[in-house]
């Protein structure tokens, strides 16, 4: 176990040394051990074509099976993982495990699905990320265009020309890029214009409020129109009601993801879900 009194990390392109409060240090040690002990696993949430109802992708989401606390959701540990740099090995594991799983699905709809993997800005900027993606694709045999890298807007905040070049280089591998949680945080229309993205994910907080809340409707419909004009495929996340789905469909949204259709599931449960399911228009 390395000494973790201080952590070195990058923010706004500048190296920082972070001294963590004792409880966070202890938590960081636990996280580090959890990586070594392989206490993480992935769940997969279906992404459906809003017109045909076809399963087109799955988003891989990390979970921590804590020996004492049970299943810990990512909101509880991604922040500390980022601050400590542990997100780099953790994220590397996620990428490989997700690609391995999806490449192993050889029949039915799952043999064609894309897999979306969330990549932290810190992981994205870490040395060797591009080479690692290439290595994972080679080792797992997954077709590059079946991997979608989901980046939150904060990954683009310091996008200068070099930042865009980095994303262009990833695109050269053939992978797809998604802008996650669009509309919250560091929304900037210049990113939307400049980033070589393929998918735009409308944040759940907007989806929650439509139809019905006029101001959220205005923002949501504007995001969809803008995204479509920039040739993004539009994904609505957090769809929980049929009224939301109908409204999003009327706007021309392409894909949906949400509890209305399915919660994130472990691989075996997802396989059963796919077997039991009849594809029909949503
Ligand atoms: P995200 O990438 O925006 O993922 C969508 C989150 O919304 C997931 O939460 C998912 O379970 C949840 N969700 C999906 N449909 C619904 C719905 O209809 N209603 C509601 N209320 N929630 C819904 P989860 O799995 O807890 O993940 C939270 C966040 O943690 C993710 O947001 C992502 O930012 C981060 N995360 C998850 N896995 C990873 C990972 O492997 N690496 C990194 N860097 N971040 C991850
Ligand atoms: Mg995501
Ligand atoms: Mg999201
Ligand atoms: Mg979100």
UniProtKB/TrEMBL annotation:
Keyword list, A-Z: Membrane, Transmembrane, Transmembrane helix
Top-rank taxon: Bacteria
Gene Ontology molecular functions: cyclic-guanylate-specific phosphodiesterase activity
Residue intervals of the EAL domain: 24-278
Protein name: EAL domain-containing protein
Organism of provenance: Methylophilus medardicus
């Amino acid at each position: 176990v390395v000494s973790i009194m201080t952590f070195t990390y990058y923010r706004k392109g500048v190296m920082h040394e972070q001294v963590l409060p004792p409880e966070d240090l202890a938590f960081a040690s636990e996280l580090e051990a959890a990586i070594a002990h392989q206490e993480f696993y992935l769940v997969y949430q279906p992404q459906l074509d809003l017109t045909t109802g076809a399963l087109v992708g799955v988003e891989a989401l990390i979970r921590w099976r804590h020996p004492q606390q049970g299943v810990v959701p990512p909101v509880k540990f991604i922040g500390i993982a980022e601050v400590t740099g542990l997100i780099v090995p953790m994220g590397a594991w996620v990428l490989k495990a997700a690609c391995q799983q999806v490449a192993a699905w050889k029949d039915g709809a799952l043999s064609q699905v894309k897999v979306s993997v969330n990549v932290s800005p810190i992981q994205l900027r870490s040395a060797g990320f591009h080479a690692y993606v290439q290595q994972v694709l080679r080792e797992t045999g997954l077709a590059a265009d079946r991997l979608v890298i989901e980046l939150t807007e904060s990954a683009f905040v310091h996008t200068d020309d070099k930042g865009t070049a980095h994303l262009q280089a990833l695109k050269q591998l053939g992978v797809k890029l998604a802008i996650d949680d669009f509309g919250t945080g560091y929304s900037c229309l210049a990113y939307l214009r400049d980033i070589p993205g393929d998918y735009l994910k409308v944040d759940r907080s907007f989806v929650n409020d439509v139809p019905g809340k006029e101001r959220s409707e205005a923002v949501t419909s504007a995001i969809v129109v803008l995204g479509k004009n920039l040739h993004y495929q539009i994904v609505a996340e957090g769809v929980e009601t049929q009224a939301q789905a109908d409204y999003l469909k009327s706007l021309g949204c392409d894909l949906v993801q949400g509890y209305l259709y399915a919660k994130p599931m472990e691989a075996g449960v997802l396989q059963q879900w796919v077997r039991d399911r009849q594809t029909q228009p949503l």
